[in-house]
Amino acid sequence: MVDAGFLTLDDAGRASLNRARFSPKQRHFVEIPPSYDSNGGSELVINSVIAWSFYPKLLVRDGKGWRNVANNQSISLYPTSVNKGVSNPPKWISFYHIMQSSSKFYNAHDTSAVEDFAIALVCGEADFKMYSGVVVIDGNRMRFSVDNWKVMLALKILRLRVREIMTQSFRYPGKALSTQQQGWLAIWQKTFS
Questions:
Q1: pLDDT score recorded for residue 126
Q2: What is the value of pTM for the model shown?
């Protein structure tokens, strides 16, 4: 990310990164500068970014089990998963991979819980049905009901603005955000806190 221009490091950070890169005998961890780690302590933001990056690898609660959003396949969680057997299971879970067990069941591994609004804000292509009050993600793959048209309009605009900011950041890494874009990111940040 430093080489692509997404991050700028001071001399100490660059020296630490070079030591980690060119030391084949042992692994070194690089400290993330605090200016780039504003969400490091927020489990909600971390899980939302994981779900966004793994999308469509999502499971939705279906009765007592789970259903894969991508292909409607019935999935169970791996027996040692932190999300298995909890008293109040989450409605949405992102996963890294699925493996078939010896008993022919499919188990999801490396799972993390995700909130509804995070999926509606960052995952897939959204279609906002204002009259019916429904947000449809990826052609009816997922549907979210919104009670108020004002909330739906706010979701639509916030989703659009964050998409534009992310597109610009990927196309022009290192380019500073405008004050208006910083304001939109501040609003996005408040929704996750």
A1: 93
A2: 0.79
101 within 8 A of 107, measured Cβ to Cβ: yes
Q: How many CB atoms lie within 10 A of CB 111?
A: 23
Please choose, from the candidates 43, 34, 44, the residue with its C-alpha nearest in 3D space to the C-alpha of residue 191. Answer: 44
Helix H, strand E, coil C: the string for the chain is: CCCCCCCCCCHHHHHHHHHHHCCCCCCCCCCCCHHHCCCCCCHHHHHHHHHHHHCCCEEEEECCEEEECCCCCEEEECCCCCCCCCCCCCCEEECCEEEECCCCCEEEECCEEECHHHHHHHCCCEEEECCCCEEEECCCCEEEECCCHHHHHHHHHHHHHHHHHHHHHHHCCCCCCCHHHHHHHHHHHHHCC
Categorize the per-residue pLDDT at 28 as very low, low, confident or very high, splitting at 50, 70 and 90.
low
